[in-house]
Amino acid sequence: MIDEQRPLTGSTPGMSAVLGLLLFLVLGGTLPAWEAIPNLCQLCSKPFTTQVYSAIDSVTEEKRFLCDECVVRDHRCFACGLPIVKDMTSLSDGRHYCARDARRAVIQSADIQGIVVEAQKQLHQLLGDQISFPTELTDIHPVDRVTIEAMFARPGNDFACPNILGFYRTVSDQGERRHDISLLAGLSASGTRAVYAHELTHAWLADHLPAGRKLGRDAQEGFCELVAHLLLEHLNDQEGLRAIRKNAYTRGQFELFLQAQRTHHLSTVIEWLKFGTEPLLDESDPEQVRRTKVPTRPAKPLWVLPSGAADAAARPAGQERLQLKAVVGSEKRRTALINNRTLMAGEKSRIQIGDETVEIEVLEIGEDFVRVVRTGGGEETLRLPAR
Q: How many whole angstroms separate alpha carbon 199 and alpha carbon 205?
């Protein structure tokens, strides 16, 4: 966005920044205290003549002062949004970059895939004990702007993520459920990383939201932005964090998820995503995220030891107890609630039991049982009692 700053009628090129500021204030302009307007255009370096305009660099969020010639230039940089004076790089899909941002744009598929692989490692390191991302069942496709905009216009894709920097959908491959993620080529490494984390979280939500959970679209987008934000925060990526904070398309849900995560912990947020009773987080009810309604079966689950063990009473002294509290979902997509942790087959998690933290992996979820294995321990079966 270009803002007109002040007229310079009667001024002479080369006046001092202080004199220019005083003239601007006399003519009724408003600027922050002691904000100096330079003598030269900050794009073409020519002296100002009749008008001074300002615009914000979208990458650095710094204000830039422009002359009347630069304001009407034909092309704007896709990354920073400023007019391009020289050394322009153009892509076949109609996007243009200034020299600075062309050097930062990740265009080649191999480079994008490299960022994706590294982001996968970072996400696993950061959140792997709470979110098991389906990376092995996810296909990544770098695309241009024409392709990605066509995806949004295609009938049947109204469920897709509305973030036009990436696109997510589920696909069926010979009976196997897979996830398809398209990433817009030409973003910075920071942007590529954030969009990938966002879209991969859509894939996780598709796999883990129980049947019947009516989670609002803005809440889904807000949680995906939260995961991207956590990744960028972990990497101290200030550019990416600024981009997420200024993007308002989740209608405030991202900010509420971030507040809930900082106040109540990510595990509480995940529990609400799966078993909350409202479709969206409510700004007026900060404790809402702690209210869930988990489907339950008869109250006391049973311990069933591996085949060949005597009985549950013979468990080694001091070994803490895991409890299966519920199994929900269909045969192809079951979720088990184990000690207040919801997990799917193949997921790992750390579970606090009294003073001890144990790590388990879910091997199988049946209609009324789960098979788990503790890290460093043997396989165990947790079973719900018969109805």
A: 10
